[in-house]
Design goal:
Chain lengths: ~170, ~120
């Protein structure tokens, strides 16, 4: 597989495993309200490591910090956002931190993996060369996706697993 | 209530310190603070911060210096001196806002036989 196959660039229009027409594209300023609405629909039981927050006011606050200068790729279906992959700049020019969020009904259909690859492709175009993430050690499905895309486990004394990728 | 608070140099220690002092001022807890150094601050710096905050909050507490193995010493202190509760910081937040728990928190959660409160 070439680097461009592994890390495609948005937009992409495709039909997912459940026959839904899904659009993957970069987040625009006018999508922010729709993104807030997606997080308001996010099942609290699907949260990981304290995010996303549950109360609307805290969702706004959290997104303000998140959408400031990073990479944001979204998946939409029938006009609503159903997935979000984000790369957030590290402190002092350190590696970017990655996270992906997919609404419960849209999980298991490959959307997370696609928006993840598109976010990495977009990040590479913007000169990002190192990406890291943390994930709960029991979350085997997420870890499998990250490994498939090229992340490697880092050594750490923390409770959660950390993984990193050179673009 | 007899409360033992562990404070290192982390951001979460700061939050735990503020909340615990607030609570102690309201509830009149019998408070002991175990101070220890970390990558972020020396034990002297942590001790000074704690003393300054105690003075500002007008709360009395017994300060204990923990020179090594803070996690196991905190658990041992809490148990041998019959504390009702052991309070520590509830984890650091990444730029993304994800909470991660460090080695001290993990040790305390797995090994303490007293009630543990994570403050965030």
């Amino acid at each position: 597989m070439t680097a461009d196959d592994r890390y495609p660039r948005p937009p992409e229009y495709y039909t997912d495993a459940e026959e839904r027409e899904v659009t993957i594209r970069c987040l625009e300023d006018e999508d922010v309200d729709a993104l807030v609405e997606m997080y308001e629909r996010f099942d609290p039981a699907d949260r990981a490591q304290g995010i996303p927050p549950t109360e609307p006011s805290r969702i706004h606050e959290w997104l303000e910090g998140l959408l400031d200068g990073g990479v944001d790729v979204i998946a939409s279906h029938e006009g609503r956002l159903v997935g979000h992959a984000t790369l957030v700049p590290g402190a002092e020019g350190g590696a970017h931190e990655l996270a992906i969020f997919v609404l419960g009904d849209y999980r298991g259909a490959g959307i997370g993996t696609r928006i993840l690859r598109h976010a990495l492709g977009t990040g590479a175009d913007r000169g990002i060369d190192r990406v890291w993430l943390s994930v709960e050690r029991w979350n085997a499905p997420a870890i499998a996706v990250y490994e498939k895309v090229g992340f490697e486990r880092s050594t750490t004394d923390r409770f959660e697993l950390e993984m990193a990728l050179e673009l | 209530m007899k409360v033992l608070l562990g404070v290192g140099g982390g951001e979460d220690s700061d939050i735990a310190l503020d909340r615990t002092l607030e609570r102690a001022a309201e509830a009149g807890d019998d408070l002991t603070i175990g101070v220890f150094g970390s990558n972020n601050a020396t034990i002297e710096e942590v001790e000074q911060t704690v003393k300054d905050r105690l003075a500002t909050a007008d709360v009395d507490a017994d300060i204990r210096r923990i020179e090594e193995q803070p996690a196991s010493r905190l658990v041992e202190l809490a148990e041998t001196e019959s504390f009702d509760q052991l309070v520590i910081g509830g984890g650091q937040r990444s730029p993304m806002g994800k909470i991660s728990l460090g080695a001290i928190t993990e040790f305390v959660l797995l090994n303490a036989q007293v009630t543990v409160r994570l403050e965030r």
